[in-house]
Amino acid sequence: MGRRQRIVKTGMVVLLCFFAIFYVFPYVWMMAMSLKPDGEIYTVNIFPQEPTLEQYKRLAFGYQFGPEYNLQYKYGAYYRNTIIVTVCSLVLVLFFDALAAYTFAKFKFRGKTVLFWTMIGTMMLPIYATIIPTFWLFSKLHLVNTYQAIILPAVVDAYGIFLLKQYMETIPDELLDAAKVDGAGAFRRFWQIVLPLSRPALGTLAIFRFIFVWNDYLFPLVMLRQESMYTLTIGIAQMQMRQGMVVWGVQMAASVLATVPVIILVMVMQRQFISGLMAGAFKA
Amino acid sequence: MTVADISQPRREATWSRLWEKLTPYVYLSPFFLGFLAFMLIPIAFSLFLSLAQWDGMRPLQFIGLQNFIDLFSDKRFWNAFRVTMIITVTCTIVGPAGSLFLAVLLDKVGERIAGWLRAIFFLPSVTSAVVITYIWKQLYSADYGYFNAFLQQHGLPVQEWLKNPKLVVPAIMVMLIWAGLGWDALIFSAGLKTIPEDLYDQAKIDGAGDWAEFWHVTFPLLRPTLLFVLVTSVIFLLGIFAQIQLMTDGGPMHASETLSLYLYTSGFQYHKFGYASAIAVVLTIMMVVGSWLNFRFVRLEV
User: Fold this and answer.
1) Same structural domain for residues B242 and B290?
2) Which one of B36, B40, B132, B258 is least enclosed by Cβ atoms within 10 Å?
């Protein structure tokens, strides 16, 4: 590589790193604010002079900002609710999507094309087309403000089925035919052959669904009514409106704790996540 | 051996063949039930609701196209339409352009550095819109925000980023572009990797400079990827909700109110479910038209 080219390349690296530093500033700011004592919250310093865990403590134990005023946060409940909703959605989505994808990939039956393309068609529609009637449905079933109201609609996931079907189609039919000859029923072929072989695609789907459900705002906003049922997103949003006061420090602490699990997950499953994203962009 | 014994295996065979025929339907039924309950029926009901007047409690009244007539003479609707279009068009042009540039740069630096950088740029895509919006809301805050404190420190005039009707939409757009950069860049990176090396080598032999190389080799082959990015951008931007509601709730005085926010307010605050459904229909049509326009614009002929 010529000298000029090397200089240009180094220049680009420097430029990109510089840009990355500015780019990541909002996150640095969030972490910094969560560690700043009240006196420093509104200062220009990027890093706290006297870092403290006060904001986090307030999140856990309540905020005493006057002799009679003790503000309690139900953060633990928010976390618990989010975990329950996310894990349940994930399990259901993975199982039913895989089953449906398996059916589309490996079976021939009447109405297959119609059903498949209807499903694809709905992928394009925004959630606004369905949210009002879905709310009304749950309202009639007295299921508003429950976990079911958020978990069940999340299970209808056309993208996931599409992704899994593409992947499952690459599983050689001979493998399944051999199993059939050996006497394995359709479900056993699914459970013991197709599922294990689809692990990469399932992993990718799991990550995407996790991120989506964990961070979802509109659905919980519409369906949940009681503070004890809130998910993290709604809970953090509500923190702004408390007593007309904006408690930035606590809110940032809450945000940090809500964001960390997702970041850890993505870092751990990084390669899978990125390859899945790229593959998905391809097929589309 | 009686006749009954001989017919027994045949009956079992019939049952198992019947089961085989039914299996796909059985396996699809959970998904299908959900699909029916949470997709097809709601969509149909939405369409129906858009032709009716309903507040969720009093009986439903069918009023035909009146909602749409009211909608198209509603100033607030057109304001929301304008805001939504500004945000969508601007961010769809600037965002992917920036992401493409970023992806091309990342492609030219070493793979290890690129990997780390991509992870950094990707952070907003895995962060909740709520968290992102609140961080930026603080940064933009007129009295307590970092941006204004920074300006003040350097003797520059302080701005009311979120209270000034002229600044509020650009302020939101900056945040949106920032948030979307990494995701699109990653998709472009994937697309870039599919371009065969020999094409670049050939271009170099032919004496093509960097810009010519980009325009004649990279860009044409990225058309499908570009189309994907544009379409997903348009659909996403037409429907953004959390960011607007939490940043400004449509303020000041509806200066930043989008169609999605107006839809939510009409339905869940004013309880005008029919009217809100009409907005939903309009928004859906906009998304379909938007996608189609992108298909025409990018013209997949290579």
Assistant:
1) yes
2) B36
Whether chain B has a CB inside 8 Å of the CB on A252: the answer is yes
Taking the model in full, what pTM does it have? 0.87
Q: Verify whether the Cβ–Cβ distance A137 to B191 is below 8 Å.
A: no
Domain of residue B265, residue span: 66-298
CA distance A68 to chain B (A): 26
Sign of the dihedral through C-alpha A18, A19, A20, A24: positive
**Choice between A241 and A60, residue whose per-residue pLDDT is larger:** A60
- Do B200 and B260 share a domain, yes or no? yes
Q: What is the CA radius of gyration of chain A?
A: 24
Q: Among A248, A281, A282, whose Cβ lies nearest the Cβ of B138?
A: A248
* B280 contacts A128? CB cut-off 8 A: yes
Question: Is the Cβ of A64 closer than 8 Å to some Cβ of chain B?
Answer: no
Query: Does B56 reside within a domain?
Result: no
Residues 7-36 of chain A with CB under 8 A from chain B are: 9, 12-13, 15-17, 20, 23-24, 26-27, 29-30, 33
DSSP letter at B250? Answer: T
User: Which of A132, A274, A278 should one mutate to test binding to chain B, selecting the residue with the greatest count of B CBs within 10 A?
Assistant: A132
Q: Does A263 touch chain B (CB under 8 A)?
A: yes
Question: Does B208 score more than 80 pLDDT?
Answer: no
- Write out pLDDT tens, residues A169-188: 888 888 888 888 888 888 88
Please give the CATH number for the structural domain made up of A75-283: 1.10.3720.10
| pLDDT-based confidence at residue B2 (cuts at 50, 70, 90) | low
Chain A nearest-CA distance from B17, in A, is: 12
Report how many domains make up chain B.
Answer: 2
